[in-house]
Amino acid sequence: MFLKKVDGPRAVTLPDGTVMTRADLPPQTTKRWVASRKAAVVRGVLYGLIPQTEALRLYNLSEDEFRSWVAAVADHGEEALKTTRLKEYRDP
User: Where would one find the signal peptide in this protein (predicted)?
Assistant: First the structure.
């Protein structure tokens, strides 16, 4: 078995004790961004699994869009990433 050479860690331990690997990140070809995929990218960046610049490039995200995901998680938790909750968690 051959491992692809990657910069940075292959796995990180999250505060709850679970281990997150690059395999836990959504596929690069993701078109439909459900809350769990957004949360995985946010966790990956925040805990050092993947640099933000790489995440933005891989997933073709704007910096503003990614920042809005991070802010939503920081302010209201991962529930805020659900599109059905936009009105509930949106700034007035």
Answer: none
Residue 12 neighbours by CB under 8 Å, 6+ apart? 19, 20, 44, 47, 48, 49
CATH 3.40.250.10 assigned to 15-89: no
Length of the chain, in residues? 92
pLDDT digits (tens, 9 = 90+) for 15-52: 999 999 999 999 999 999 999 999 999 999 999 999 99
pLDDT band at 57 (very low <50, low <70, confident <90, very high): very high
pTM above threshold 0.90? no
* Alpha helix (H) residue ranges in the chain: 35-46, 52-58, 63-76, 86-89
- Tokens read off for 55: 């995440």
19 touches 12 (CB < 8 A): yes
Q: Round the CA-based radius of gyration of the chain to a whole number and report it.
A: 14
